[in-house]
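HUMAN: Please help interpret these tokens:
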Amino acid sequence: MPSRLNPYMSFAGNARQAMEFYKGVFGGTLTTNSFGEFGTKEPELADKIMHSMLETPAGFTLMGADTPPGMEFNPGSNVSVSLSGDDADELRGYWEKLTQSATVSVPMEKQMWGDVFGMCTDNFGITWMVNITQSQS
């Protein structure tokens, strides 16, 4: 799968409703995964969206999630840039360059959903999320 770059939106507990709204606007296929599907031990998070992706007929990709406890929700600055794909060398190269002058909030490492992921904010204030999809073996 080629690497893709798209917006990633954070929501204050209403990601499911927001992503359904965007599906109504743009059409396409919406996939959602809740925190519960990934084994959260926090009952209040079980039905909240950990990750969702809308792929539209026009070729748009929107991703979104509910902001988990411990992370701050900031309306107006709740959109990040997501880089994702399965080309680990390419994506790690982007990560290395992005983090040279960035604040790393999530180190690049394997996550509970099985992929390798990192998050940083560059010196221009843009939050970047890099996800390297792991092969399903």
User: Anything to note?
Assistant: Strands lie at 4-11, 29-34, 49-55, 61-66, 79-85, 103-110, 116-121, 127-132. The radius of gyration is 15 Å.
